[in-house]
Every structure is written in C-alpha cells, then in structure tokens.
Design goal:
By secondary structure, this protein is α/β, with parallel strands linked by helices. The chain has 2 domains: about 90 residues, Nucleotidyltransferase, domain 5; about 140 residues, ATPase, nucleotide binding domain (Nucleotidyltransferase, domain 5, 2-Layer Sandwich), CATH 3.30.420.40. Helices cover about 40% and strands about 25% of the residues. A 5-stranded mixed β-sheet has the order 3-2-1-4-5, with helices on both faces. The chain has a 5-stranded mixed β-sheet with strand order 8-7-6-9-10, sandwiched between helices. Helix 1 crosses helix 2. The longest helix has 28 residues. It is globular, with a radius of gyration of 19 Å.
Length: about 250
C-alpha cells in the first residue's frame, strides 16, 4: 500500500492507496513546531483507527510547501514506516513540462495537481485549489504547465478582515440566503463566499480567453463551498492532490 502526504501551509492531507483505490484519507492541521515523533505517533494512530497496519505501507509519496516540515516527514517515513519517500522536487520525474519563466518557482503542489488534472481529465484544463491561497493552474492540450494565477484564500481573507476590523468576527463560510445580507453574518458570507465566486468567474473567463476552451477542475477544502454558487466549475475532486502523488510515485518507482 502507498501512503501519500500533501503538506501545505494550513493542513496536511494524507491518504492510503491499495492499487488505484483510496482506502482512507485524513486532514490534520499543519503545526510547524511539531517534531518527527509527534507526527509519527499521530500517523500511526490514524492508520490503526482505519484498520491499516503500518507494516503494510510499502511506499511513501509526499509534496511539501512548508520547508521546516520536509525533513520532519522524511525522517518520519524512515523511522516509523522504514521507507525512503519519493519527495516531489528537483530530480523527480513528474511527467509535467513547466513552460514558465522560472520552473524552480513552481510549488510542488501545483506540479502534482497539474499532473493529476491532465492524466484524469485531459487538457486544456484549469485546476483551481482552494486553500491558504486560491491557486489557478493552466494545463495545455499536451499536458504542459503554462502558469496561472494566485489570489488570497477565503479563510486567509476572512482572518485578515476580522483582525483589521474591530467589530467583525469569525463566521462559518457557507452560502448566504441572498446576496443582500440582513445581518453582520450574512453580509460577511455574501462578501466572502459570493465575492470569491465572482473572483473565480472573472479569472476563469480571462484565463480561457488566453488558453481557449478548457475544463475547470476544483480541489481543496473549500471547493465544495464555491462550486454550488458558480457555473464555471466542471468537476470537484477533493482528492486530486493525493491522486497526483500516487501518479508521481508510479512514475518514479
């Protein structure tokens, strides 16, 4: 079985594959101060709770955009699973040609999502990841990564707003009943949820003007919030990154 790990700024997504089947997946908060043993014991407990023996993990594939945690999870893989992980980065086969000015600037998660999008859904395509940032990745008909756009994430924007405005507070990010809010909560939900839907629609329109007709694939924790309030998203695949990590592992091992 294969363990896949996507380590991002806000959360860590983990999944276990048996062949092409995703047996189990989890999402935990990213905590930069935690050590190898902290995450190791947490991972073992998650595996045990899902009835997956750690001894049956035969491979590990991971991407990491949090530099301090890269070595933590590399050590975890060796110490607790006795496996050398495939880490997305220089020297790793990805099957994705990076047609951008500086390929080294492209985050590992963007490469993984682009590969998964092209392999699973074809191209041209636009992959949108709703996370700490809202990331738009454009993939050509030939599977090349062409670049894209990065906007603030919904939670990031909400946290910035509540920090800066004394009378505003944290709210649940769900679709408001109407665009015209009748309370502080619904006016904020309109501005954040419907506002981000407008951002997505505007950027997709501009990207398609340059890319041509393309499928739009959404992933990330808040994809299911935005997809119902816009008609520009064709597919929601919450496990896109984990599937991409499996594809990269298969390319390299």
């Amino acid at each position: 079985m294969l363990l896949t790990l996507d380590i991002s700024n806000t959360s860590i997504k983990a999944g276990v594959f048996r062949g092409d089947e995703l047996l189990a997946n989890w999402r935990i908060a990213t905590e930069r101060h935690k050590l190898t043993d902290d995450y190791g014991m947490l991972l073992l407990n998650l595996l045990q709770a899902s009835g997956i023996p750690a001894s049956e993990i035969t491979g590990v594939s991971l991407s990491c955009v949090v530099p301090p945690l890269r070595s933590v999870f590399e050590d975890l893989s060796r110490k607790y699973l006795h496996r050398t992980p495939v880490i997305v980065g220089p020297g790793i086969k990805t099957g994705v040609k990076l047609a951008v000015d500086n390929p080294r600037e492209v985050g590992a998660d963007r490469v993984v999502n682009s590969l998964a999008t092209y392999r699973l859904y074809g191209g041209p395509a636009i992959a949108i990841a709703f996370g700490t940032a809202t990331v738009f990745d454009c993939i050509s008909a030939q599977g090349e990564y062409l670049g894209g756009a990065i906007a603030p994430g919904m939670v990031t924007s909400l946290e910035s707003l509540t920090r800066s405005a004394a009378q505003l507070f944290q709210i649940e990010l769900v679709r408001p009943p109407k665009a015209i809010g009748k309370s502080t909560v619904t006016t904020m939900q309109s501005g954040i949820v419907l506002g981000f839907a407008g951002l997505v629609e505007g950027l997709v329109k501009r990207l398609k003007a340059e890319l041509g007709p393309a499928q739009v694939i959404a992933t990330g924790g808040l994809a299911e919030v935005i997809a119902p309030v816009t008609d520009v998203i064709d597919v929601v695949d919450l496990q896109l990154t984990l599937k991409g990590l499996k594809l990269i592992y298969d390319l390299n091992v």
